[in-house]
Amino acid sequence: MADEAPFQFLHNEVIQYIYKTAESGETENGRNITRLENMGFRVGQGLIERLTKDTARFKDELDIMKFICKDFWTCVFKKQIDNLRTNHQGIYVLQDNKFRLLSQLSAGNQYMEHAPKYLAFSCGLVRGGLSNLGVKSIVTAEVSVMPACKFQVMIQKM
Amino acid sequence: MADEAPFQFLHNEVIQYIYKTAESGETENGRNITRLENMGFRVGQGLIERLTKDTARFKDELDIMKFICKDFWTCVFKKQIDNLRTNHQGIYVLQDNKFRLLSQLSAGNQYMEHAPKYLAFSCGLVRGGLSNLGVKSIVTAEVSVMPACKFQVMIQKM
Questions:
Q1: Which UniProt keywords apply (chains A, B) (predicted)?
Q2: ipTM, 2 decimals?
Q3: I want to staple A9 with a disulfide (CB 3.0 to 4.6 A). Which of B43, B51, B91, B94 is the partner?
């Protein structure tokens, strides 16, 4: 329980710092999301490099996605992705039924509007991890009922 | 090894973000250090609250310091402080012979000037942890040989 706490608390502080130092307004909110996403991207790049140092070569895209759902997710969030689905045409949906970075937020609907800023970093995390494995992607996230959430990965064919 | 990696990478990104968004210059460097220290303070406050939830009451100041050196340090850095000394008059020196947030830096002297920004967050961490246990302090850090470092805690009598 306390294992991932330093990361969680730091993540919260980063969100607060970015939002506090920036100007307010619609455009700025978008920019803050991008900042968080970029930060996640670089962390994801670094992490995947360390995690795959001694792993065998990946067979295919699905094999890579499974690695993200298991090893990568466990490293950051101390649990695996609960469900992975794909249309076999480059779209993957990763469902986490108890996403750690949302578990501090109350489940009320009034907090739903804050969800995007708690998800941006992790979208970047996945995109960065995949990018370092040679897979270019667009990653988005949505919350249906807190603290469950879905990450949608769209692979960009090169 | 990979266990504390997400925290480490995020910590590095935070330093880079803070230094990148701020203006350059002497004063600004001081301000960035303060920002990092404050961020650490709040993370320390949150962490200690979670860690001490089910612990027995502390006997005295030394007992608190031991908790910081063992449980608190292990939670964040996956190792204990290697050496704790005190003059029994409110000064404590915590030595970590292989401080994780410095272990990515090369040991050359030319990198010594960058050490303060890698230590500020952790100084705040200790100060925040102590503060939530009712101990007001000033925490500074110094590096003699990388990646070993010493944190000096001066208790402020109230």
A1: Endoplasmic reticulum, Golgi apparatus, Neurogenesis
A2: 0.87
A3: B43
